[in-house]
């Protein structure tokens, strides 16, 4: 999978620090269907104190240390921590609609980025459930496109 260099670098630090996360959103759609424009990368993070510390360390390695985030910021369900600006914004999500961490993690797939980083990605069925749960027009269109591709 081809990612912008900044995203590759960040996810390399996530891998080195053993951060538990899943790629969701537009980039996950690109893996399960086809690439489309997106203004960010969405990362669904596991909520545990240990993982929160790993995230902080990886963000510090990447250069986001001055943002003054705390471990507690990654422990509250329903949080969206946005770092950077589009089209290179990183959204860290502590929960997603319609899918628990355990469900998403159990059915994840692994793809390799163009720079050789292994990326855990939400499974297709969980991505569909998530997108249906949001009810947003663009997400419903994504589900329609995935299903059309399955029929071919």
Automatic annotation (TrEMBL):
Gene3D superfamilies: 3.30.460.40. This is Uncharacterized protein. It comes from bioreactor metagenome.
């Amino acid at each position: 999978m081809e990612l912008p260099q900044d995203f590759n670098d960040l996810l390399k630090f996530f891998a080195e620090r053993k951060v538990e996360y899943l790629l969701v959103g537009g980039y996950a759609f690109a893996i399960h269907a086809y690439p489309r424009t997106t203004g960010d990368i969405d990362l669904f993070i596991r909520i545990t104190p240990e993982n929160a510390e790993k995230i902080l360390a990886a963000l510090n390695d990447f250069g986001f240390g001055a943002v003054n985030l705390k471990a507690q910021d990654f422990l509250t369900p329903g949080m969206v921590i946005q770092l950077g600006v589009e089209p290179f914004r990183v959204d860290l999500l502590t929960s997603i609609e319609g899918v628990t961490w355990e469900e998403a993690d159990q059915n994840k797939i692994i793809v390799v980025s163009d720079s050789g980083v292994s990326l855990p990605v939400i499974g297709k069925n969980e991505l569909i459930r998530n997108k249906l749960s949001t009810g947003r027009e663009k997400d419903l269109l994504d589900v329609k496109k995935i299903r059309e591709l399955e029929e071919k």
